[in-house]
Amino acid sequence: MPDNRKDELVTLTEVENLARADLIRSVLQGSGIPSYIPDEGFGQAYGGVFGIKIKVRREDLAKAREVLEDMP
Fold it and tell me: Looking at CB atoms within 10 Å, which of 10, 23, 30, 37 has the fewest?
């Protein structure tokens, strides 16, 4: 039976604005890590008042955390 948990999306971090979310998504993409902002439209409408989550696949979580540690 295949392990589908590795494709499960988990929250990497939560940021206050869409500009920061886009920056993180771009850095992750440059490192070969796909990321998703499920509430992107909601964040645009409300300016991140509720926080904007950035999600990655469970299998990419450790590498994504390492990439974020190097970000200013």
Answer: 30
Torsion of CA 62, 68, 70, 72, to 10 degrees: -170
Give the DSSP H or E segment for 64: helix 61-69
**Whether the Cβ atoms of residue 5 and residue 50 lie closer than 8 Å to each other:** no
What value does the mean pLDDT take over residues 45-52?
65
pTM of the model: 0.78
| Residues 53, 11 contacting (CB under 8 angstroms) | yes
Residue 53 in 3-state DSSP?
Answer: strand
- Superfamily in which the 8-69 domain is placed by CATH: Hypothetical protein rpa1041 (3.30.70.1530)
| Residue pointed to by tokens 């994504």 | 64
Q: Tell me if residue 3 falls in helix, strand or coil.
A: coil
